[in-house]
Write a structure and sequence with these properties.
The chain has 128 residues and is an alpha/beta fold. It has one domain: Thiolase/Chalcone synthase (Peroxisomal Thiolase, Chain A, domain 1, 3-Layer(aba) Sandwich), CATH 3.40.47.10. It contains three helices and five strands, in the order E-H-E-H-E-H-E-E. The chain is globular.
Length: 128
């Protein structure tokens, strides 16, 4: 059986509050920035990532549609990379990481990026 391991992480700066420095920055731009850096830190090529799972507690309005897919494209991942947005409110990030680990262990997807809250992203890959 394959193991799911976290091989890199990245975090956005804190500042999306009402008067914060990034308050007018779209969530997909912030998420894309974090995904791009997590992938780069892992030493991966963008085309190696097969799936992106991101938690978003309020996936309506400006972060509507599939914000994980939008962030993946903003990160420079190819259009062939899948994206899934997860809403579990306060535990969206943990659910996204659990789903990514499941994709690696059960579905044998070699590389999945997961994160949430537009604050963290982790790149996971298969370890046998």
């Amino acid at each position: 059986m394959a193991d799911a391991v976290i091989v890199s992480t990245a975090r956005t700066p804190i500042g999306r509050a009402y008067r914060g420095a990034f308050n007018n920055t779209h969530g997909a731009a912030v998420g894309g920035h974090v995904i791009a850096h997590a992938v780069k830190r892992a030493g991966l090529e963008p085309g190696e990532v097969e799936d992106v799972v991101m938690g978003c507690a309020l996936p309506e309005g400006a972060t509507g549609q599939n914000i994980a897919r939008q962030a993946a494209l903003r990160a420079g991942l190819p259009v062939t990379t899948a994206g899934m947005t997860v809403n579990r409110f306060c535990s969206s990030g943990m659910q996204a990481i659990a789903l990514a680990a499941q994709r690696v262990i059960v579905d044998r997807v070699p590389i999945v990026v997961a994160g949430a809250g537009w604050s963290r992203s982790a790149s996971c890959r298969t370890s046998t």
